[in-house]
Amino acid sequence: MGVGAEVIPISSKMSSDIDGKVFLAK
What we know:
The chain has one helix at residues 10-25. By secondary structure, the protein is an all-alpha fold.
């Protein structure tokens, strides 16, 4: 999930990070 985080824009990275935290919450 975080593999392409560096490739996409910062705003998208933050959204991905949030999704990652939600995923870990599950």
